[in-house]
Amino acid sequence: MLNAVRTGCRATAVILAVTACSVDEAPESGIAPGRADAGPLNTTYGIDGSPFTLRDGRFEMPAAPDSAAKITLKVFGAPAYGELDDDRETDAAVILVYQGGGSGTFYYLAAALGGEDGYRGTNALLLGDRVTPQFLRIQNRAIAIDFRDRGPAESFATAPTIDMTHFAILDGQSLIAVPSETEQSGWVTYGHEVRTFAPCDRDDESWLLGQSPALPDIRASYEKSMSRRPPYAPLFMVLAGSFMDPPHDGFGADHSSAFFAAKLVEVNPAGNCRDEFVSVETPLAGAIIESPLIIKGRARGTWFFEGDFPVALEDAEGNELSRSFLSAQGEWMTKEFVPFTGTLSFTNPVEGLRGRLIFRKDNPTDRPELDDSTAIPVIVGVGSP
After folding, report:
1. How many angstroms separate the CA atoms of 216 and 256, rounded?
2. Are residues 115 and 170 in the same domain?
């Protein structure tokens, strides 16, 4: 099955109607060249490495010599149109239904790339056996398909009831599945030639893929939230999506991974990777800080020991520039949030540099499993980093 997103889908569109047509004979090997009159219903698609050329949306051949059983491949419903490969030619996405003469009815997702000589079909990705397609669309150079499937233990006699959404994007001329979607918290940086996501649970920054359906929302939210902050300041977001290989070229090729953002879940300018324990009110992430720096916020009482916990300032390479303590402004022997404040002094650099404020849970024991920390990015000193 297509390895892609398995979440509850929002679309409740009416199930598409099957296109009924006729064909001639089985294709020869290889994907057939496009023709000037070749639309998405009249081109060749690859199913498990074998080419199938459709005529008026349908392919048919005997399942065996002198057999009445037929192998059929047909387009289900209407194609979805949009831009997939950024060549300013209209492309299409199609749902294909394959029946090989047995009891199975297999649904596939494929693309047809528009060009001067017509449409050229891609390989097809399996959705499943006897699923129920709901809604097909092209969004921000990605294909999304909502459909219903069954649970692993359910028989094919059971009607599909589990809502799913799968995504696919182009890799060159091939259609590839987007891996299963998960929610990821982290820092988004957006600007000229920069489009990165630094997840909380990874040490590296991922390139935000241009085909991400959530990219327009991410950009709009970033520009709105960061209008009064320095350029390229990170913003804390929660994204639903998938990690993938980086692009082969462009600025994204300099990164070790990429992130396909299917949905923008949350934007929190005051957030951090452990904000269920520490909430920093000032400075905000991405702020320009100068010495002496007054730090304020709230933390769970479990982060304090004897009424305080340590804070440190590090540069981008992890070198410690200063350290101090933040003190509880109230009873700290509680699991609830307690206000804190403190002052951090350091040498102001001549030019601004990127750094991090590290908030560490005070751990008076020798047990490393009780250690915890969170950080917010800042710019140290005046000037461009």
Report:
1. 23
2. yes
Which are the contacts of 156, defined by CB distance < 8 A and separation ≥ 6? 103, 129, 130, 150
CA–CA gap between residue 211 and residue 82 (Å, rounded): 12
Within this chain, do residues 242 and 328 fall inside the same structural domain, yes or no? no
Whether 259 and 296 map to the same domain: the answer is no
- Residue 382 has what pLDDT? 65
Instruction: Tell me whether residue 116 is in a domain.
Output: yes
Mark whether 60 and 165 lie in a shared domain: yes
- Let me know if 39 is exposed, middle or buried by CB neighbors in 10 A (0-12, 13-18, 19+): middle
Distance of CA 207 to the CA centre of its chain: 10
User: Can you tell me which residue has the tokens 């991405």?
Assistant: 286
* Segments in the chain below pLDDT 50: 1, 3-36, 383-385
pLDDT attached to residue 83: 93
Residue-level pLDDT at 230: 83
Coil, strand or helix: which one is 82? strand
Domain that holds residue 191: 182-267
